Amino acid sequence: MLKAGSMDFVGQKQAFNMQFYFIWTSGVIGYVHGFVAQRFLYTFLWIFGTTLFVTLMCLPPWPMWNRHPVVWLEPKERDDDDEPKPKKPQERQAKTPRKVVRAKRKIRLEPKTEADPAFKCMAEAYVITSSELQRIKNAIGLTSDVAADSSADATQMPAKTRAQLLHEKSQARAKTWSNTLEGSRRKKAEEKRKKLEMEELERQKVDAEEAKIQLDQRRATIDRANKLLYEESDRMKSFHSKMMHCDVIAEREAQISLKGELKKLEQIRDDRFLEMEKQNYRKMLEREMKERETKEELSKIAAKAQKEQLAEYKEKRFQEVEDAMLEGELLRRKAIEDLEAERSAEKRRREMAIKAQKETQKANSYLKQIKAEDMLRQQKEEEKIQEYAQRKEKMLQLRKQKEEEVFQQKQAARNAMIDAQAKRLAEMQSNEDARVEGQVKQKEAADEKKRLDKLEMMRRWEEDIQNSRQAQIERKQNTRAREKAEDHETAKFLAEWCKVLDKQEQEENILKDAAARKLAQEHLKQVELSRRKKFEEKHSDKGVAEHASKVMEADTLEFHAYAEKIIREYSAEGKNVIPLIKELRDFRKRVQE
Predict the structure, then answer these.
(1) pLDDT at 18
(2) Closest CA to 575 of 246, 297, 259, 130
(3) Which of the two ends of the chain, N or C, has the fewest CB atoms closer than 10 A to its terminal CB?
(4) Is pLDDT at 206 greater than 90 in this prediction?
(5) Residue 146 is part of which domain span?
(6) CB within 8 A of 554, min separation 6: which ones?
(7) 213 pLDDT exceeds 90?
(8) Which residues contact 163 (CB under 8 A, 6 or more apart)?
(9) How wide is the angle at C-alpha 61 spanned by C-alphas 59 and 62, nearest 5°?
């Protein structure tokens, strides 16, 4: 229990005076502010809010507003404090020192006499807040040991414990509120954290996409380089030359057939043209006869019409002369009147023209100045344009020179290939002519012998014929057998290569699946660990390089597949595929060696 002197009428009066002072001050400030702002509603709200805030700050604490533990005494505890019981020696040793006991008693001031009934009534008990209790403890210098003893005493007091638990529950519940300042701060911090996490996820997605695009670009570059190397290889160039040879042969045969067809068409066209010329000549003669008769009839009709028109014209002309003379007299009179009016108007116009001329001279001087500035600006622009045109012309000239050099190089290579093919064809033709010439000589010798000894040579000739026929039959059989064997070997070779290509395709599919899985793992690693980005890129480049090396090793198989496809296409088009088959056989022999 607190003494009556600790919170008496004087203290209450001071608190009331302080509240009244704050209320009066806030009212004066609000009135002045409202008078300056000239807004009555705003002034009223400001005065009301300020007054309410100051009043709440000056009011004594209320237990329902502040749930801190309160210090008050039960009547039983007050009676015990009025008449303290003697303690045992063991209990006295366990208690706190004298100073601590004295400090505790300062918190609950006891009455000095038992006769005062005012301090025995609970209605006169005073309530203090935890903050006030803490301030009193700090004032009397209460130590941590004393605070520990006080907490030990609090555990022995059910009311204090219950109040403390309620306070903790209220604090825990207040942490879940979102309509308070602390709750709004927590909510803003959580939203900010989520926003940063979302931005980080977006950045990681963008990084993953950029890495994927870069990887695709590198792969496309490697594939293009491999394709260029494949196209520039010697075997592909040789095979393309054979393809060109086949195309030349087919084109030559087509040109021969086309030339024959054109000759036939030319003959037909000449015959038709001659017939058309004859018909046109006959029609032209008939048309000239009809036109001559028509012109004679028209000339007669025109002469008759001209005579009638001449008579009508003379009559009309005489009437127009008379009307013109009458109209001229009227115009002469009107001209005299208009001349007078025109002179007066001309005088006024001259005055206005003189005035306008002066103004025009001023405007012309201003326009000349503007034109001079425009001319200077245009001259500068033309100089810049001329300089840009010269620079561009120089670049175009350099580009044309470079293109011309490249074209000349390609043309030289092409001419060399054409010369080599022509030389090879000439050699083949010379061998054929020598063989034919030899056969002709043999035939002449046989004829000469037949002439000398007809009967004997007839018999020998018949024997030679039979032997030749037999040799031709054997040669044809051998040729057919050899062709069948070659076709069988070629089919077997192509079947083996097809099997190898199927196997290679399966291996490529396996490699593609492995590369896809590897790429997926790399993406996951990039999302999870961005710091290992460079290492993963190097690893990916290494995998792509290995794949490229495997593709280069499979180049031979792809070449055979390509050759087989071209041979089939040329055969379907009816072209001669013997050079291509020979080239493919030579390449197989080189590979086996």
Answers:
(1) 60
(2) 246
(3) C
(4) yes
(5) 4-177
(6) 504, 508
(7) yes
(8) 67, 68, 69, 70
(9) 110
